[in-house]
Amino acid sequence: MLDPIQSEANQIIKQLETDLEKGNLDQTKYLGKRGLFRKLAQKIKDVPPEKRQQAGKLINQVKKTLETKVRQHLKTPSIPTNSIDLTTPGEKPKVGHLHPISQAIEEISRIFERIGFIRVRYPEVDWDWYVFESLNMPPNHPARDEWETFFVDRPDTTGEIEYDERDPRKRHPSLIGGGKLVLTTHTSNSQVREMERLKKPPIRMINIARCYRRQQDATHTQMFHQFEGLVIDKNITIQDLKGTLNYFAKKFYGPEVKSRIRPFHFRFTEPSFEVDFSCHICGGTGKVNGKKCKLCKSGWHEVGGAGMVHPNVLKAGGIDPDKYTGFAFGWGVERTYTLKPGLNIDDIRQFYGNKVEFLKQF
Ligand code: DAH
């Protein structure tokens, strides 16, 4: 009486074995609700009562066998060597992205390009003349101390011509065989270079480049980036500078952010200003819920310098200061970027620490 059940069980087991060999495991076909095992188990009701216990044992045995075979197969699936499962999801290659500072540089360029600024590039190892002297800082002028400069070791030829306050162009590197060579301490070296390139205004440039200074702490790195704007034309006024700064503040930080300028001193601009942006956390009030704003403490963030181009700088670039005026501004990309809403980076050295975990977040 049990023979038919036994032989059907054998068949089911055999069928499973061939399926497994072929690598086509479909568990539901054997062990599912409507599977072959279920059908076999239902046959128990045709067995006479006295044989039912024996039949039950047999059926339990069959179930165990099927389950063990499936389990073993799942542990070490015998995939036939000549078949590839094209439906298996592939491993996604890791996709990188631009470094956060490169992203910031792209964004800054786009913002200024929209109002007609042209991005330029100039040497990041440049003559002292472009970095200091043409910017109204004669040799040994104390204002130079502000820039902790890396000089490049080479014979210094600066002393060969007398300094002439009225005509700084007499000290142009092409006349004095170069002079001192420095790693650019600021992007302002591009100002006179751009005047020389275009020869005649209008000039509307944005120069974003690496700068180097002998400094290293949480807010300074020896290599960092600055961006420098320069506009020269007829009738350029402080209003144009203010409009440009406000436009940038709104585009980069959001429509509610404002800029302000405070009197300051730089040798290459007159008048000169420091530029602040209002804090996006407290909206420029310095207070959050009646308490001092933790991010800015005063309502404003100081970001950089600006001013109206000094007549001596225009002269050094071969431009007549009686006909043309201009404004310039310049400051750090890293600092500008870390003030963005949502970023909370208290140590800018992290940008250059090469930790993927840090960089992945941007
Ligand atoms: N070059 C200055 C610095 O590195 C910043 C600066 C100030 C740039 C005033 C300008 C300017 O163009 O007009 O600190």
Please provide a written account of the structure.
The chain folds into two domains: 2-74, no CATH class; 100-359, Bira Bifunctional Protein, Domain 2 (BirA Bifunctional Protein, domain 2). Helices cover 34% and strands 20% of the residues. The protein is built from twelve helices and twelve strands. The protein has a seven-stranded mixed sheet. A hairpin with a 2-residue loop joins strand 9 and strand 10 (291-292). Helix 1 (3-22) runs parallel beside helix 4. The structure holds 3,4-dihydroxyphenylalanine. Residues 186, 188, 228, 266, 269, 304-307, 328-330 line the site of 3,4-dihydroxyphenylalanine.
Looking at the structure, the CATH topology of the largest domain is BirA Bifunctional Protein, domain 2
State the helicity in percent bands.
25-40%
Q: Please give the alpha-carbon distance between the first and last residues.
A: 73 Å
Radius of gyration: 38 Å
Largest sheet: 7 strands, mixed
Total beta-strand segments: 12
User: How many domains make up the 3D coordinates?
Assistant: 2
Helix/strand structural class? alpha+beta
Query: Spans with pLDDT under 50 lasting ≥5 residues?
Result: none
Gross geometry = elongated
Mean pLDDT: 91
Strand order of the largest sheet: 1-5-6-12-11-8-7
Q: Helices and strands, in N-to-C order?
A: HHHHHEEHEHEHEEHEEEEEHEHH
Number of helices: 12
Provide the CATH top-level class of the largest domain: Alpha Beta
List ligands, each type once: 3,4-dihydroxyphenylalanine
Task: Estimate what percentage of residues fall within beta strands.
Answer: 15-25%
CATH homologous superfamily name of the largest domain?
Answer: Bira Bifunctional Protein, Domain 2
